[in-house]
Write a sequence for this structure.
């Protein structure tokens, strides 16, 4: 193990040395015509003089100025080609025999002579990236290195696009609304069905569409900040194509993945089947921390949150190294053109898993009285299951109107078993959860004239969440009373309607109208002693809310400025009804005004600066309105002081963003301030085996400060991409611990990130991601801090265009003060493709250094916890893939 770690550090040192000490020749100057006038947008290419391979390129600016960086490691002689529309090409040969700077080079181009031809055929050289209005188009194959298998793999290589670990996509820092396939929104909200499963070999181009609107009737009228990606298929992708991968490994490891894409003039279908027990997950459902998807995020306001939820996977390391699973996911996604005016989309999916983990946790809790310690060992087995179906029917009776009817039904079931030892006391816990969600939505849009449209929206939803915790041994709570069963039931029913006037005139784009929302919620809880029902602790409450008013959006454009004013003025009435005798009825009736103001300045075609102010006032959620104790897990008991106030908050931020897609350079900076005026804070009572949280609304305020900056650049001269990020956060908040007074806590986090990726046209390439984190918390009693670092190194070896290997080293230091207590987790894969590209053979080795466990330290203002998680042992998997 020590030898492997030394090799790891040596590899990191080697590729950093190569990146930072590479040398280059700099050529700068101007492109003029014969009258010494500058020629803008002239193309300058540097080619290998012998093979004519492109080494680097540049484009002259409006003053004709250019800059070329030529790596010294390239061929000894290069040829600079200068091209401009309407001019003859210009050539210059340079010998690279020493490090040199060529400054103020003048390239003079002559006007082209025009000859009359009978017929002219022009084949233009296709560019890697092109921009037209609000659409940026990438030629997918130009950004591939041969290791990509799915669309998601290829998207990670595209300038301006970022993908998170759970598959969320951003373009120029903005979240993607939809991923289209050939112009059709085949996947709805869960676009990772496509990005994680569609083969990259089917894709010709990727289009990033800004100011995206799925409703063509509102084209040119509404102002949209939405972004969509469109995957353009290769011309021959008609009829049917598919991929299949089968794998088998030692210790009964299996992997199967089958996808199929069928396209005709009237229909389009993508279906997939996936099974594995090697820790992989190609579904849109994330187990970190819960069984959620992007669809859940879109419908968050229509759903309640689980109260007894038990996280399945919270580790910061790769899922395949932590989870023992048994994952099954299948889906079918279909669009049918019923007629020229009507189309139907439906999506059906089924997900099931069996996840197993084992953890050890040791926590120290500090208070004004003494220090309490918890030691807990957990063995967890969780069986999540999701059945989901949705449909959308679109009818266009004319070019000026559209009717959308869509619906959705989700059924979620999760059973989790915990065997745990808490402070040397053995117990077990069974957690059962279910969720039913039904949504029906209707949207009608009609264009009244060239500048105005009317939109009517109606939405009905129903959400029910029954939960139960059953303990094998009874827990002692309060006055030596024993409990072993916690029941929770929530329901959430909503009606939402709005009538909007949408229009555009001169420099204005506007929308406004009436808004109506009705919500009926129920919450029942029962903490039971199955041996004595009279000791039960119950909550039974109903919360009915009505909010109606006017909402407006005004966008004013002046030169390079945008002024946006979004406001909502509404009347709120809420009625709190406790159905048991221990609580009093309450109601609130008031006028609420929520403004959202944005000022954006477009500095140039590549950059903008934006400021925003947002004020919100909203009602407490029902899961903060129960007054009797509720046992949320085996160590936490919660209750609330019922106060039917509205929570008030504000946020102000300013950000600057620079995106030069052609030159692969991005820069982003953010400064943000947020404040909660009357937050809900806890009185925390820590005793031996139990933490009691009593929440109440305080007249203090919580404040948050954030500063972030990121820069990313692809240096063609070094054949390398660099990304640097700094993120600083501070949160000031209040709480009470045991007998202490209300105390102010300051939690700070500083994150430094540096990523490097090489794109050498050679056998070896490298990728490295370094992250250093500092956590600090201070209050009147104590100062606690933790510093840790992570580093992930990928080595890609490609001796032949059909053969490549990838070796990954993930290095963790959970506490810099104990740098010798570190962890190195290693994974490797080898892939070979046949000459006709119809079959691939692969071999993967996970955790080949056979690290046994991983440790992580968490801190808060009153505790320090050390979490040790067992890792999956070394496993080997052989895979065969074929295309059909």
């Amino acid at each position: 193990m020590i030898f492997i770690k030394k090799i790891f550090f040596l590899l990191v040192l080697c590729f950093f040395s190569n990146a930072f000490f590479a040398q280059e020749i700099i050529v700068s100057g101007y492109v003029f015509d014969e009258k010494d006038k500058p020629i803008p947008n002239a193309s300058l290419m540097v080619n290998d003089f012998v093979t004519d391979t492109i080494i680097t390129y540049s484009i002259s600016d409006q003053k004709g100025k250019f800059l070329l960086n030529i790596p010294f490691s390239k061929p000894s002689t290069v040829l600079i080609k200068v091209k401009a529309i309407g001019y003859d090409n210009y050539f210059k040969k340079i010998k690279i025999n020493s490090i040199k700077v060529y400054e103020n080079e003048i390239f003079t181009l002559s006007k082209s002579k025009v000859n009359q031809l009978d017929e002219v055929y022009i084949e233009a050289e296709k560019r890697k990236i092109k921009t037209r209005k609000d659409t940026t188009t990438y030629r997918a194959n130009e950004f591939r290195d041969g290791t990509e298998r799915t669309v998601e793999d290829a998207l990670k290589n595209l300038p301006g696009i970022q993908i998170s670990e759970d598959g969320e996509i951003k373009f120029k820092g903005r979240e993607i609304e939809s991923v289209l396939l050939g112009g059709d929104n085949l996947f709805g909200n869960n676009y990772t069905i496509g990005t994680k499963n569609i083969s990259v070999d089917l894709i010709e181009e990727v289009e990033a569409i800004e100011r995206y609107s799925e409703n063509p009737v509102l084209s040119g009228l509404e102002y949209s900040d939405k972004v969509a990606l469109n995957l353009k298929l290769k011309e021959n992708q008609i009829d049917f194509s598919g991929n299949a991968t089968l794998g088998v490994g030692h210790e009964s490891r299996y992997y199967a993945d089958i996808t199929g894409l069928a396209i005709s003039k009237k229909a389009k279908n993508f279906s997939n089947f996936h099974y594995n027990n090697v820790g992989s997950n190609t579904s849109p459902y994330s187990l970190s921390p819960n069984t959620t998807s992007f669809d859940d995020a879109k419908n968050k306001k229509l759903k309640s949150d689980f109260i007894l939820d038990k996280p399945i996977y919270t580790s910061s390391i790769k899922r395949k190294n932590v989870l023992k699973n048994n994952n099954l996911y299948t889906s079918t996604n279909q669009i049918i053109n019923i007629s020229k005016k009507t189309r139907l989309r439906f999506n059906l999916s089924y997900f099931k898993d069996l996840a197993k983990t084992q953890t050890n946790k040791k926590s120290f809790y500090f208070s004004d009285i003494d220090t309490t310690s918890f030691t807990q060992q957990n063995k967890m087995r969780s069986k999540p299951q999701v059945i989901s179906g949705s449909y959308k029917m679109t009818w266009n009776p004319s070019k000026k109107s559209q009717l959308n009817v869509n619906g959705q039904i989700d059924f979620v079931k999760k059973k989790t078993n915990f065997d745990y030892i808490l402070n040397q006391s053995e117990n077990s816990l069974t957690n059962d959860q279910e969720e039913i969600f039904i949504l029906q939505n209707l949207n009608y849009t009609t264009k009244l004239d060239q500048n105005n449209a009317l939109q009517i929206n109606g939405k009905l939803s129903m959400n029910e969440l029954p939960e139960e915790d059953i303990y094998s041994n009874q827990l002692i709570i309060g006055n030596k009373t024993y409990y072993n069963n916690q029941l929770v039931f929530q329901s959430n029913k909503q009606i939402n309607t709005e009538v909007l006037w949408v229009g555009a005139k001169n420099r204005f784009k506007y929308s406004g109208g009436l808004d109506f929302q009705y919500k009926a919620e129920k919450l029942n809880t029962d903490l039971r002693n199955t041996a004595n029902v009279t000791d039960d602790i119950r909550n039974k409450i109903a919360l009915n809310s009505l909010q109606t008013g006017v909402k407006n959006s005004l966008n004013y454009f002046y030169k390079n400025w945008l002024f946006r004013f979004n406001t909502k003025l509404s009347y709120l009435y809420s009625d709190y009804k406790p159905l048991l005798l221990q609580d009093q009825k309450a109601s609130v009736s008031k006028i609420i005004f929520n403004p959202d103001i944005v000022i954006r300045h477009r500095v140039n075609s590549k950059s903008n600066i934006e400021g925003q102010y947002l004020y919100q006032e909203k009602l407490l959620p029902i899961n903060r309105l129960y007054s009797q104790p509720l046992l949320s897990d085996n160590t936490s008991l919660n209750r609330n002081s019922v106060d039917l106030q509205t929570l008030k908050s504000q946020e102000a931020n300013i950000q600057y963003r620079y995106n030069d897609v052609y030159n692969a350079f991005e820069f982003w900076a953010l400064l943000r301030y947020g404040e909660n005026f009357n937050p809900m804070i806890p009185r925390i009572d820590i005793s031996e085996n139990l933490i009691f949280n009593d929440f109440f609304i305080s007249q203090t305020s919580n404040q948050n400060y954030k500063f972030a900056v990121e820069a990313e650049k692809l240096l063609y001269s070094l054949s390398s991409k660099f990304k640097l990020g700094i993120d600083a956060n501070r949160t000031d908040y209040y709480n009470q611990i045991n007998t202490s007074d209300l105390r102010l806590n300051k939690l700070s986090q500083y994150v430094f990130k540096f990523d490097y990726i090489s794109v050498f046209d050679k056998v070896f390439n490298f990728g490295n991601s370094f992250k250093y984190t500092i956590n600090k918390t201070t209050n009147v009693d104590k100062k606690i801090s933790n510093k840790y670092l992570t580093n992930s190194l990928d080595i890609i070896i490609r001796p032949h265009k059909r053969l490549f290997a990838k070796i990954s080293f993930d290095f963790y230091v959970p506490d810099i003060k104990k740098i010798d207590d570190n962890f190195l987790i290693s994974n490797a894969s080898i892939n070979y493709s046949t000459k006709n590209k119809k079959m691939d053979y692969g071999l993967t080795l996970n955790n080949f250094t056979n690290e046994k466990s991983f440790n992580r330290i968490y801190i808060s203002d009153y505790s320090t916890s050390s979490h040790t998680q067992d890792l999956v042992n070394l496993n080997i998997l052989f895979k065969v893939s074929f295309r059909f």
Confidence is low (pLDDT under 50) at residues 9-22, 114-126. Residues 282 and 560 are 43 Å apart (CA to CA).
